[in-house]
Design brief:
129 residues, mainly alpha, elongated
């Protein structure tokens, strides 16, 4: 793998990991401190967010970094999810800035290293270091 490809892959997985960590933190905070007139509902949202954040983070940190194609496809969930939230005006929040940031981060994370996932097989072999 070239230095450029290595940098693109690293930028990609860090971008996707930021989203996973942010979702995980949102879930932890929402579960612990539900700010709503319906705390059980918000806790359920929080627990679901914890699962989504952990799942995305594990896919990113393990399979994506190994350049496994299924992980690249699975992580397209992020831009689709955040775009649906933005277009649909869905929560959390009313400013939607975080949704735009997460859409951009996820697209950067998926598109910058695309050749690492769909280049020649020899070029996709993960490094052991």
């Amino acid at each position: 793998m070239t230095q450029r490809a290595s940098t693109l892959l690293k930028t990609g997985w860090i971008s996707l990991a930021i989203i996973g960590v942010a979702i995980l933190l949102f879930g932890l905070i929402t579960t612990a401190l539900p700010a709503s007139s319906d705390p059980p509902y918000m806790r359920a949202i929080g627990v679901a967010s914890i699962g989504m954040g952990l799942f995305g983070l594990l896919i990113t940190l393990i399979a994506y970094r190994r350049r496994e194609r299924w992980a690249w496809f699975a992580l397209w969930y992020y831009p689709l999810f955040w775009t649906a939230h933005l277009v649909g005006g869905l929560p959390p929040g009313k400013d939607h800035v975080h949704q735009v940031v997460f859409i951009i981060l996820s697209l950067v994370g998926l598109l910058l290293p695309v050749r690492e996932f769909f280049g020649r097989r020899e070029a996709r072999e993960p490094t052991t270091s």
